[in-house]
Specification:
With 209 residues, the protein is of the alpha/beta class. The chain has one domain: Flavodoxin domain (Rossmann fold, 3-Layer(aba) Sandwich), CATH 3.40.50. A 5-stranded parallel sheet has the order 2-1-3-6-7, with helices on both faces. It has a two-stranded antiparallel sheet with strand order 4-5. A hairpin with a 3-residue loop joins β4 and β5. α1 packs parallel to α6. It starts with a strand and ends with a helix. 30% of the residues are buried. Bound molecules: flavin mononucleotide. The site of flavin mononucleotide has 17 residues, from α1.
């Protein structure tokens, strides 16, 4: 039995295009793999630890080989629990809206919590950085109001390149994508068509995931 971690990064629930297409993926995946578990994590409703001064004090105390205080240790244990849930999955599905050319802040917070040396990546002065989350596939469903596929628009897209950078940094090599765009700029007919195509594409991507 495998565990698929399904990370939702839109607060728009059923109105969300990225969640609609990612739900189609999850449904097709469940049909093809009824024995597998799907663990859904909504970064907007999940009680993610704040990555503030106390968390950073704990991080640097641990990184420096010192002993964190009891309060720092308690804060760090919450960070470790989020990392553990992430790392214990076998496969990953993300639903990611574009917000201000990048990803929503709660997903950025999630990355700030889980991307930690010794947990999801390592550093060696001789060989550099190495990702520690290896041998697992990820599918990312993107939604954006505009269309960033043209040569002119691609340079301002910080959504897909950022997701791919972070996932590659922590070890992913097998990253597929489903793109729903433009969900706003082309008007309702274009949006309807792009959602339909994204749902079909997502179902197909789930078949051999
Ligand atoms: C706060 C916010 C910022 C947005 N910024 C952009 C943007 O920079 N570029 C863009 O094309 N669309 C932008 N949009 C539109 C969304 O990308 C679009 O509505 C998309 O469908 C959202 O994904 P969702 O339907 O899964 O929530 C923004 C929407 C919100 C709410």
């Amino acid at each position: 039995m495998s565990r698929l971690l399904y990370i939702q990064a839109s607060p728009r629930g059923e109105s969300s295009v990225s969640i609609t297409a990612a739900d189609a993926f999850a449904e097709a995946y469940r049909e093809a793999n009824p024995q597998d578990e799907i663990d859904t994590l909504d970064v907007f409703t999940e009680d993610l630890p704040a990555f503030d001064g106390a968390a950073l004090d704990a991080k640097y105390a641990i990184l420096g080989g010192g002993s964190p205080t009891a309060d720092q240790q308690a804060g760090w244990s919450r960070v470790e629990a989020v990392i553990e849930r992430f790392k214990s999955a076998d496969k990953y599905l993300f639903a990611v809206p574009m917000w201000n050319f990048s990803i929503p802040y709660r997903l950025k917070q999630y990355f700030d919590v889980i991307v930690q040396p010794g947990y999801t990546f390592s550093y060696d002065p001789e060989t550099g950085y190495d990702g520690l989350v290896t041998g697992r596939p990820a599918c990312v469903v993107y939604a954006s109001g505009g269309d960033y596929s043209s040569e002119q628009m691609r340079p301002v897209d910080m959504q897909k390149p950022y997701m791919e950078l972070m996932l590659t940094f922590i070890g992913f090599k097998d990253i597929s994508s489903v793109i729903a765009a433009p969900t706003l700029m082309g008007g309702p007919d274009t949006a309807g068509e792009c959602i339909k195509q994204a749902v079909e594409h997502a179902r197909a991507a789930a078949a051999d995931f």
